[in-house]
């Protein structure tokens, strides 16, 4: 149901109130302060001025500003304004002379004196020109603000569409990236322990349900995300050798917080991709803490060179690049991420802080 307070009706009401106020102040207030009976022709002139100002205001706002000034034709616009002022003053003078207004006004103020034609009153014409410039100036400002508002609304809408499209594209890249990495792990496991491979497939099916349903949402429960992380880590543990020491410290949230789904997965993938060796001792740290609605996430792993022919070596860090982009889009000014390589320990570390408010 249409409301009386809809933006369009409010705009019309503001215009009406504005013109009523301006007409009362500029065209009625001063004449009513005169202590004489003004001729009816004078009030006809005031109505004539009000109609002209209305035409100038909306003609300038709807035609000249959008089609000339906002098209960067400033010189032509200034010429139109000057010619319009001359035309406006000329029409006013013509109306006064046609209606014999100067003589009628003289008799109204000086009933006992004989009218003698004189030159025009400079300040009267100046006042008329000021009314014209006021109408032009206000209408130009209104048209410029409306154009800026439309451009800003369009920019915001385009930004929303761009972000939505980009996020969909990033999700489409992350899902296959995760899926093929995990399948590769299970394939390796089938050559070692078939039973563990079957258990891994069951975990993968549960994880893929999460991917299919939760990843289509903008946000998911942090509890579900942590369950997904635990499943992923358990899946990875099945193929780890005793030389890999996994330090998992994940704090369960006390309240139902929301987070973008699968946001942390690429950091975990990076740990198991680069931090596992079959010959050397290694350690992987995965740590998550909560302080109120602020999440602190940390990973740390040793760095081992990948085999040049392995699928992982052929990837170009799609997951991490996309995750940083998703963080920029979903948590602008609400996250801080630091990462680097500790040369002394040959370790790669990531520190991520996200405000989930």
TrEMBL record:
<keyword id="KW-0418">Kinase</keyword>
<feature type="domain" description="Signal transduction histidine kinase internal region">
    <location>
        <begin position="166"/>
        <end position="242"/>
    </location>
</feature>
<keyword id="KW-0812">Transmembrane</keyword>
<protein>
    <submittedName>
        <fullName>Sensor histidine kinase</fullName>
        <ecNumber>2.7.13.3</ecNumber>
    </submittedName>
</protein>
<dbReference type="GO" id="GO:0004673">
    <property type="term" value="F:protein histidine kinase activity"/>
</dbReference>
<feature type="transmembrane region" description="Helical">
    <location>
        <begin position="46"/>
        <end position="64"/>
    </location>
</feature>
<feature type="transmembrane region" description="Helical">
    <location>
        <begin position="76"/>
        <end position="95"/>
    </location>
</feature>
<keyword id="KW-0808">Transferase</keyword>
<feature type="transmembrane region" description="Helical">
    <location>
        <begin position="121"/>
        <end position="145"/>
    </location>
</feature>
<keyword id="KW-1133">Transmembrane helix</keyword>
<dbReference type="InterPro" id="IPR036890">
    <property type="entry name" value="HATPase_C_sf"/>
</dbReference>
<dbReference type="InterPro" id="IPR050640">
    <property type="entry name" value="Bact_2-comp_sensor_kinase"/>
</dbReference>
<dbReference type="InterPro" id="IPR010559">
    <property type="entry name" value="Sig_transdc_His_kin_internal"/>
</dbReference>
<dbReference type="Pfam" id="PF06580">
    <property type="entry name" value="His_kinase"/>
</dbReference>
<feature type="transmembrane region" description="Helical">
    <location>
        <begin position="12"/>
        <end position="34"/>
    </location>
</feature>
<keyword id="KW-0472">Membrane</keyword>
């Amino acid at each position: 149901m249409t409301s009386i307070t809809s933006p369009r009706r409010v705009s019309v009401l503001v215009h009406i109130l504005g013109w009523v106020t301006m007409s009362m102040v500029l065209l009625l207030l001063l004449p009513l302060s005169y202590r004489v009976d003004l001729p009816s022709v004078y009030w006809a002139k005031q109505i004539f001025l009000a109609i002209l100002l209305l035409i100038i205001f909306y003609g300038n706002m709807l035609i000249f500003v959008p089609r000339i000034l906002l098209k960067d034709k400033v010189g032509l616009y200034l010429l139109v304004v000057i010619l319009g002022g001359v035309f406006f003053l000329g029409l006013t003078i013509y109306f006064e002379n046609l209606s014999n207004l100067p003589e009628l006004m003289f008799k109204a103020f000086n009933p006992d004196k004989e009218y003698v034609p004189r030159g025009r009153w400079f300040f009267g014409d100046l006042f008329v020109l000021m009314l014209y410039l006021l109408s032009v100036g206000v209408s130009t400002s209104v048209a410029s603000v409306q154009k800026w508002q439309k451009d800003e609304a369009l920019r915001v809408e385009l930004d929303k569409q761009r972000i939505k499209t980009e996020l969909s594209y990033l999700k489409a890249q992350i899902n296959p990236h995760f899926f093929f990495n995990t399948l590769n792990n299970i394939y390796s496991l089938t050559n070692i322990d078939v039973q563990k491979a079957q258990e891994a497939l069951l975990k993968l099916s549960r994880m893929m349900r999460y991917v299919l349903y939760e990843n289509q949402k903008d946000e998911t429960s942090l509890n579900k995300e942590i369950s997904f992380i635990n499943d992923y880590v358990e899946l990875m543990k099945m193929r780890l050798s005793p030389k890999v020491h996994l330090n998992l410290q994940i704090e369960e949230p006390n309240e139902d917080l929301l987070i973008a789904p699968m946001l942390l997965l690429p950091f975990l993938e990076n740990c198991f991709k680069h931090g596992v060796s079959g010959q050397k001792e290694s350690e992987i740290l995965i740590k998550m803490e909560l302080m109120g609605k602020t999440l602190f996430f940390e990973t740390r792993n040793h760095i081992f060179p990948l085999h040049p022919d392995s699928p992982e070596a052929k990837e170009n860090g799609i997951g991490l690049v996309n995750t940083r982009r998703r963080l920029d889009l979903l948590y602008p000014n609400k996250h801080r991420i630091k990462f680097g390589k500790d040369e002394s320990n040959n370790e790669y570390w990531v520190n991520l802080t996200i405000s989930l408010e």
